[in-house]
Amino acid sequence: MAEKLKIATTSLGGCFGCHMSFLDIDERIVDLVDIFQFDRSPLTDIKHCSEYVDVGLIEGGVCNSENVHTLREFRKSCKVLVAVGACAINGGLPAMRNFVPLEECLAESYLTGEGIVNPQIPSDVELPLLLDKVHPIHELVKVDYFLPGCPPSGNAFWRFLTDLAAGQTPTLPYGLVHYD
Amino acid sequence: MSKNTLTIDGKPVQFKEGETIMEAATRAGIYIPHLCHDPELEPQGNCKMCEVKVNGRNCSACTFPAAEGQKVLNNTKELNENRRIIVQMLFVEGNHLCPGCEKSGNCKLQAIAYSVGMMDYRFPLIYPKREMDSSHPDILLDRNRCIFCEMCVRAGREVDGKDVFAISGRGIGNHLIVNSPSGLLKDSQLEVTDKAANVCPVGAIIIKRHGFEIPIGQRIYDNKQIGEVSVATEKVLEEKIHG
Amino acid sequence: MTWSESKQEKVLTIVCKHEKRQTRLLQILREVQEEFHCVPRYAIEIVAAELGLSRTKVEGVVQFYSLLSLEQQGRFHILFSDSITDQFQGSRKLMDYMSAKLGVKPGQTRSDGKVSLGFTSCTGLCDQGPAGLVNGHWISRLNESQIDRIVDMVEREVPVSSWPLEFFHVEDNIQIPGLLLQSPIEQGEALKQSVRQGFDEIFIEVTRSGLRGRGGAGFEAAWKWRFCAEGPEDYSGLSLVGRNERYVVCNADEGEPGTFKDRILLNSNAHQVIEGMTVCAGVVGAKQGFIYLRGEYYRLRPKLEAILANRRANNLLGKSILGRNGFDFDIEIHMGAGAYVCGEESALIESLEGKRGVPRVRPPYPIDRGYLDQPTVVNNVETFAAVAAIAAYGGAWFATHGTEKSKGSKIISISGDCERPGIYEYDFGISIAEILMDCGAENTLAVQVGGPSGGVISGKEYHRKLAFEDLGTGGSFMIFNKKRDILEIVRNFTHFFAHESCGFCTPCRVGTTLLKNQVDKICDGHSTALDLVGLTSLAKFIKTASHCGLGQSAANPVLGSLSHFPQAYKDRFKDVVFEPGFDLDESLETARQMSLRDDPWAHLEQ
Ligand SMILES: Cc1cc2nc3c(=O)[nH]c(=O)nc-3n(C[C@H](O)[C@H](O)[C@H](O)COP(=O)(O)O)c2cc1C
Ligand code: SF4
Ligand code: SF4
Ligand code: SF4
Ligand code: FES
Ligand code: FES
Fold first, then answer.
1. How far apart are the first and last CA of chain A?
2. Other CB atoms within 10 Å distance of the CB of residue A130
3. Given CB atoms, is B128 within the 8 Å cutoff of chain C?
4. Tell me, which fold does domain A5-94+132-176 have in CATH?
5. DSSP 8-state secondary structure symbol assigned to residue C183
6. Is the C-beta atom of C553 inside 6 A of ligand 4?
7. Can you tell me the distance from the alpha carbon of C123 to that of C336, in angstroms, rounded to the nearest whole number?
8. What is the pLDDT of residues A78-124, one digit of tens each?
9. Under an 8 A CB cutoff, do A106 and C589 touch?
10. The domain B5-80+226-242 is classified under which CATH number: 1.25.40.10, 1.10.8.50, 3.40.50.1220, 3.10.20.740?
11. Is the ipTM of this complex over 0.95?
12. In the CATH scheme, what is the code of domain B97-207?
C-alpha cells in the first residue's frame, strides 16, 4: 500500500464546531485513517507539525499572536492549506468585535464591565496578545482551498478529503456548500 | 424565425414590444440571475448580476430593451465568473454572518453564491460599521446585510404608496435611511403586510418572530437551486402582471 | 420672533425665493448650507414639507454632494485641493501647517465653531496650485506666509467679503491661444448671422464643420442636435400633449482633475459660450437652457449672471431674440455641489432636476428623454464656444483646421511638471512632443492625457497625436517628471474614483474601494507578485461591468500604469510568496500598551 497522506488540523479563533462536525463522518473515519495519518491535531495531541504534511485544515480566524505563529507553522509544513468554516474564511462570529475598538473591548472585559472584582488587564509573557482586529486566515497566509459552512457538514468534509486524496480538485455538489 | 424573436444562449425567445430582455426571458422560463429585479417593480439596474452579452456587448438584462434578432449570451463561463465576483463584492462590502442570520437558506444573495460556486471571498473584507434598527414591533432592519438593491425603496413608492426607505450617502458610504421624524422604523408608516417589508432579497429587512419556523436544512435554497425556484415563481408573476 | 423662529424664517425665505420648485432642491440646499454652515435637520423638514418631498429624499441629496453636510462646519470652511498636482506642489504639507496653526484636523470642525478644514477632489486651479476654497471662494498659489495671514483673518473673524482681493486672484493663464481664443466673436455676431442665414443653414454649417463634442466622448454635435430636434413627440404615458419641450444644457461641471479650460472660457469668453447655446436653441427649438456650473466655480457665478442680464437687455436672450418672432430662449444657472459624477450627462440632468446625481439607465438617451423627460442637448462649454464661432465664420473655416476625423482645435489645460502650466490651444493633430516643448517640460516621466479617467503615456509615445482617433482628451494634460513616483499618482487617482463613485452599481461602488485598498497595500509595501493577478482581474472587471463612464474608467490608472510601468510595481513587491496586507506588529500595539508589555513575545515579525 502507498504511504499514507499526512493531515494536520487546528483551531485558531474558532469554537471547535468544525472539528466536531468533522467527526460527524462517523464510521467513515475508519476508511479515512486508511488514507490519512493524523499529524498535529487536537485529535492526536501532537503539538507541532512534522516537517512535511500533505493537508492542513484550519478552523477559526486569526485573533491573537499565538494564532499567527500556529498558522505560520501550518503554512510552512503543509502542502495544501484549507480554510475550514466561516471563522477561518471570514472571521465569523469572533469578528463581530471588529466593530468595537480593541481598547474598549479590553476595558469592558477587564476593567469597567459589570461584576469585575480585581480590575486589571492580564499581563504575562505566557499570554498571547490580541490583534486589533480578527482576520480571516487568507489575509495572513496563502490559502489553497476553502471549505465553507458553520460548520461544514460531515459529508462535506468527507467529499472534500476523498477528492483531495484521489488527487483531484475538490468539488462539492449543490447542497454540500453552505455558509450556515 | 417569426417576428419579435431573439435568442438566449441559442434558444429562440419571443418578446413583446417594449419588453426588456429579462421580462422576455422570465416569460420563456429562462433564468437570468438577478438581485434587484422584481416583475412588480420598475427595473433599475443597480446590482449588475443580470449582466448578459447582447451582440457581444455587456448589458443589464433587467433594463435593456429586447429587440429583433438580438443574440443574447447568459449562461456562459465568463458571465458566471463575473457573477461570482459580484456576490463576492457584496459579501465583503457588508457584514454577512450567515450562521447567525435568520434569512439563511432563504436568502437570494446566498443562493446565487451557492449556484455560482462561491467558496471564498476573494477580496479583503471591509467590515463597515452599520446601524441596526429593531425599534419596530414586527420588522427588523439590519443594515449590515443591505446590498442597496433598492427593492424596498421602490416597493414602498410604487406598490405600497408609502415613501418609507431611501438611499442616502454616496459610493461606499451609501446607507439606507427611514422616513420618519426620528429616523426609526417604529415611527414610519411601514406595516408588516407592505411589499416593502417583504421584498428584501437578503436578511436586511426581516419580519420578526418567523425566522426559525422552517428549520435550517429545509429552507428554499438549501436543496434547490435559485434558478429553478425563480423560474417557477416569477414566470407566473410576470404573466400575471404584464400579460 | 425667537431665535429658532428666525432661523426657520430664513429657510422659508430661501425656499420661497426658489418658488418652492422641486427642481430647485439642490440650489435651495446650497443656500441653506451657506447660511448655516450645514443643512440642519429642521431645515430638511421645512424644505421637504414646502417642496412636497419626503424628508428622506432631501436628506439623500444632502448626503450625496460633498459640499453639503449634515454636520456643523466652521464659519470659515477651508478646503484644500487634493488633486495630484496640488499634492506634488506641497498641499499636504501646507495643510499640516495650517491644521497645526488653527488647532483643528482636516475633516473636523474646531470646537468654537469658527473654522473647519477638509480636502476636496479638485478646484480647477491646477495651474496655480496649491489651491483651495474658503467658503466657496477660490484661493490659489498658497504658501506658508499666505496661510499665516489667512489664519490671522480667521482668528479675528474678518468676513471673507472683506479679505484683500489679492487672495482670490485667479489668472486665466493663457499661454498659447489658437483658433478659438485668437478670434473671439463680437457679442451677437453669431446670432445675427444665424438669423440672417436661418437656422437650417446654420445647422448645415455645424454639420459641415465636423465639430465633435469637447467634453470627452467626442460625439458629433450636429448629430446630437438633429436627434434632439426631430426627437419623439407625444410620448404615450407622459402627461404632456403636443410638441415636447426641448432643453439646451451647457455642461460646465469640469470635474476631471487637471481640467480647467472651461474656467477660462467662462471667465473671459462667456458671451461666446452663451451665444453658442442660443444658436443651439434656435436649431433644436428650445425655450429654456441651463448652465450647470460646478460648485467649485462659485466665484464665476456673479459675472455670468451679469452677462446673462446684459444679453437680455440687448435682446440676445429672452423673448423674440433679435426681433425674430417665436425665437424665445433664456438660461438659468444651476450650481453643482461637489460631485464629479454629475459631469456625466444623465447624472447632470438628475442633478438639474434637484436629485442625487445618479446616472440614468440608457437607452433612452438625453436627446430622447432628458431634463423632465424631454429631449435635451447636453454639450460642453468649449463645444458651445466653437458653435458660436462656426455660426459666425462658417463651417468651412473650422474644418480646414485639425485632422480628417478631428476638425478644428482643442483647448487643453496643462498642469504638473513644466515651466509654463496654463492654457494652450492647438489644432488637432499636434504631437505630444511638441506640446511638451512649448510648455517647457523636461525629464518627463509620463503624461496623463485626459485626467485620471484618461490614459497615461510614457516616453516611447510622445510622437502620438492629440486627436480623437489617437489620444483624446477633455482637456486635462498633466505632466510628471522623473522625480515622481508613478504609484503615488495611481494611488491618488484611485482614491479619487473611490471618493467620487455614486454608489449606484455594485462593480463601481465596491470595486473602486477594493481597488483603492489594493493600491494602498502595494504602495505601503505589503504586497507580493501574487497580488498582481488579483489586481488585474479586479480592474478589468470594474471596467467592463460598471454602469457609467465613471466606473468604466476608474481602473484606467491601474491598468495603464501596469502596462506602461510594470517595473514600478515590481520594485514594491516583497520577495516572498505572501505578505499580510497590514502591519502585524502594529496591530498588537493596543494590546501591548494596555497590558504594559514589550517582551519579545509581545511582538510579531511581518
Ligand atoms: C464621470 C463623467 C464625468 C464627466 N464630466 C464631464 C464634464 O465635467 N464636462 C463635460 O463637458 N463632460 C463631461 N463628461 C461627458 C458628458 O457625459 C457628455 O458626454 C458631454 O457633456 C457631452 O458634451 P460634448 O458632446 O460637447 O462633449 C463626463 C462623463 C463622465 C462619464
Ligand atoms: S443576508 Fe444572506 S448572505 Fe447575508 S448573512 Fe444573511 S443569509 Fe448570509
Ligand atoms: S434593505 Fe434589502 S431591499 Fe432594501 S436596499 Fe437593502 S438589501 Fe435591498
Ligand atoms: S459606475 Fe460608479 S458612478 Fe457610475 S453608476 Fe455605477 S457606481 Fe455610480
Ligand atoms: S469554528 Fe467552525 S465555523 Fe466557526
Ligand atoms: S437584476 Fe439587473 S442589475 Fe440587478
1. 38
2. 23
3. no
4. Rossmann fold (3.40.50)
5. S
6. no
7. 13
8. 999 999 999 999 999 999 999 899 999 999 999 998 888 888 998 99
9. no
10. 3.10.20.740
11. yes
12. 3.30.70.20
